[in-house]
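Hi C.,

You asked whether I'd gotten around to modeling the 130-residue construct. I have! Everything is below, sequence then structure, no commentary in between.
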Amino acid sequence: MACKKEFDQWNILKKKLASREGRIFFREGEIWWCCVGVNIGSEQDGKGNMYLRPVLIYRKINNHTFLGIPLTRTLREDITHIPFYFDYDFHSVILSQIRIFDTKRLFKIKGKISDYLFSKIKKKVIALMQ
């Protein structure tokens, strides 16, 4: 039996997020708690009542949107995962889940990764897209 997902609860929160006012300042290489929501199939879900997941700001598109890469605590090193240690814990970026996010989904900054790690992730993204 498949796990029951809380699409209705997520839709209530998503409506609130859509009406948020104000600008959130963010930079490439930062990791933010992001309201990624309840998704379908193999797409990564957020957790808790805010449906949060850490997301790496990969590329700023404009003041309101960015290309982000969700993180997981599952340590895998393959073509779509890059493991790393950050904020006293192990994580992996999930390159297969890269997508556009609106800044209204950003909840709270978690920190910034090193320039070295960010460069390594950029090279893997480029290799994956070829």
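If it helps when you're writing up: The chain has a mean pLDDT of 92.

Thanks,
B.
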